[in-house]
Amino acid sequence: MSRLSPALDAELRSNAPIVFGAIAIDMPEGRLGLLDGAGSLTFAGRTFVGEDPVFGVLSEVENLTDGGSDDAPAFGMTLLTGSDAAAATLAAPAMQGSPVLVWIGAVDRISGLPIDPELIFTGELDVPKLTSDTQGRRLDYEVVSVFERLFEGDESARLSSGHHRSLFPNEAGLDFVTGVTEPVYWGVAGNPSSVTTYPGGGYGGGGGDYGGREAEVAR
Known about the structure:
There is one protein chain. This protein is mainly beta and 219 residues long. It has two domains: 6-151, Phage tail proteins - horseshoe like beta roll fold; 154-219, no CATH class. It is built from three helices and twelve strands, in the order αβββββββαβββαββ. Strands 2-1-8-9-10-7-6-5 form an eight-stranded antiparallel β-sheet. The radius of gyration is 30 Å and the shape is extended. Residues 201-219 have low confidence and may be disordered.
């Protein structure tokens, strides 16, 4: 069964539908919405244009991949910017991690309105590659799925109140932990017990029968 709405599914099955792709980028400076063709469309509370007066046009979009093994879904896209300032803004370090949304849809021939655009990808910008030559400026971006963050390592994890608070701001379970004199190793052998056990024989006299027990002696 199709995941698309009945209206969009029917339009795509018709003769010569007007199909479009739309990409939205939530930049630190504001929203950018681009179409893979000319014109302008408004939906999902956003406006998408074929050419943005500041940031240029969407030149290429690679096929979306589902990912597999240790790879998250991702695709590449290319923007052609109209100025050095726009290229510098789009390639700035602050852009990395900006949310990216991708829709596919069709346009009604009579009204010119989009027909139930389908959101097919949610991700974020990765590292850009800026190329400038006599033909102009070309910004290649890798767009990765939000699931990419599941592959991030935990090398910075610490058994401390500061790190715990960075993950759970309102959880104070480690705030008043004191007197930890030995390191606590996570995931590896290396945190020996502070208690040594000795197989015991009989301890006669004075008390009860301790034969066959193990005596625990603290270090």
